[in-house]
Amino acid sequence: MRDTNEMEVFSTPETHLGSIVQNWTLFRPDFSINDAQGNTVFKITGPFCTFSLCGEVEFSIFSARNGEEIGKISKQWSGLAAEAFTDADNFGIVFPHDLEVGMKAVLLAALFLITQATRFQQRMHQINERFTHELFTI
């Protein structure tokens, strides 16, 4: 069984705009952005290290049709104190100006899904560190 995150995006309860699916990968985050008909329109690929301590974290947005990079989602470095002592994150998104408004909404929703996925990964890392530390201090 594989764990995946998936999000459906609607503008009204009757108007389906598309979906975001987190694809299972071993080393780096990977997402498919689908239109309302379920066709993959974009792919989002993240870096191996999604922690801000590695610097600014960028997720590239690629066209599924030709593989061209069309934008990015960035998790911006907030400074050592903010990164170490708060759960606050700063994200930004860049995509083509002429992109259809419904797909802009789906990409914005992808930003929220990526935010949650990276926070979950960070919390699991913190729990693992705490558990390992407690194991070796007993």
Measured as a percent range, the helix fraction is 25-40%
From the helix content, strand content and strand pairing, which structural class follows? alpha+beta
Number of helices: 2
CA-atom Rg in angstroms: 17 Å
Number of domains: 1
Protein name: Phospholipid scramblase
InterPro entries: Scramblase (IPR005552), Tubby-like_C (IPR025659)
GO molecular function: phospholipid scramblase activity
Keywords: Calcium, Lipoprotein, Palmitate
Structure, briefly:
It contains two helices and seven strands, in the order ββββββαβα.
Question: How does this structure look, described?
Answer:
This protein is an alpha+beta fold. It has one domain. It is 31% helix and 35% strand. The protein has two helices and seven strands, in the order E-E-E-E-E-E-H-E-H. It has helices at 80-85, 101-137, and strands spanning 6-12, 15-23, 30-35, 40-45, 57-63, 69-76, 90-94. Strands 1-2-3-4-5-6-7 form a seven-stranded antiparallel beta sheet, with helices on one face. The longest helix has 37 residues, at 101-137. The N and C termini lie far apart (35 Å). The relative contact order is 0.16.
